[in-house]
Sequence to fold (148 residues):
Amino acid sequence: MNSEGRKILGSYENGGFVDSTINILASCTRVNVRDGHLEAVFIRDENMPNAEDIASALDGFVSKPQELALPSAPVKPIVVRAEPDRPQPLLDSFAGTPERARGMAVTVGRIRAEEDSLRFFLLVHNTIRGGAGGSVLNAELAHREGVL
Fold:
């Protein structure tokens, strides 16, 4: 997870991918829940913004699927929860609107930024947004972009 995070946050330069220098330390533990992956994420960076700015940036994030209003894309790909005990699998696994996009949003909460570190929890539905829904959304995007 840590190396994939650096790859995802990296860039494309001079014909190749360059990993981000952000140090990501993520933990994933299997627990007996029906739906959802809950992750505790810790990121260390010298120039860490405050928790409010991070929450605002996550809350305002949109990407190509939202810009193109793809059928499987949630209106908001990231749902930020302010409650101190959220996200929770039973309450937040099916995040996302409209109804056809339920389970396609990522829920983020318990955001804490201190000095050079950021900690938060994120929850995503393991099958709807994971393998199945992610594949459908990728196919919708490829079709709309003329790749298929």
Remarks:
- The beta strands are 11-13, 16-18, 23-28, 37-44, 78-81, 106-114, 117-124.
- The chain is about 30% helix and 30% strand.
- The chain has one domain: 2-144.
